[in-house]
Design brief:
Length: 185
């Protein structure tokens, strides 16, 4: 049976080491957004020895390009995007200190190895629930790459943001385990 765990960012090695695939996690605190274009810029900055627009130590990146906010709302629908598009950039960001990533879909073997090496985890958020997920975002502000529009890097303050551990620091993969459990071989 999977655990339900409340975590507050930034995450520590101890926080991520206790997580197992299938754990239900409620994230609290600050998370950052970024998709392909933003990831490319973040990695280019790291390669040039430049500072990132936020301190990556212990942080979580949510792969999302939120819709515009309706009047009276902090943010528009904010559902996860497909994660494999960030795979070329994820290992260097984990090396820089990122401890968690939120998206949907499987990750490459290279990214899964980097998660073990740098003690990071991959969470899934439920695709198709963008409007519901946005209700857990209490504050949102663009902090970098405003020219990218919805793909700009945002600082989000979240409260009980629901995610599931898909890849843990020990190499566990919820998707692979699910296929094994339910496939007929």
């Amino acid at each position: 049976m999977a655990n339900e765990i409340k975590l507050t960012t930034p995450l520590s090695d101890k926080d991520v080491e206790k997580l197992k695939i299938g754990d239900k996690v409620l994230l609290n605190g600050v998370i950052y957004t970024g998709r392909d274009a933003a990831h490319k810029r973040l990695v280019e900055a790291l390669k040039k020895g430049e500072k990132l627009p936020f301190n990556p130590q212990g942080q979580v990146i949510y792969y999302v390009g939120p819709a515009p906010a309706r009047p009276g709302k902090v943010i528009g629908p904010a559902g996860p995007t497909t994660s494999y598009r960030m795979d070329p950039y994820a290992p260097l960001l984990m090396e820089a200190g990122i401890k968690g990533m939120i998206g949907k879909g499987s990750r490459s073997d290279v990214v899964k190895e980097a998660m073990k090496k740098y003690k990071a985890v991959y969470f899934a958020a439920i695709g198709g629930a963008a409007a519901l997920l946005s209700e857990q975002i209490k504050k949102a502000e663009v902090i970098a790459y405003e020219d990218l529009g919805t793909e700009a890097v945002r600082r989000l303050e979240v409260e009980d943001f629901p995610v599931i551990v898909v890849n843990d620091v020990k190499g566990g993969d919820l998707y692979e385990e699910g296929v094994k459990k339910y496939s007929r071989i």
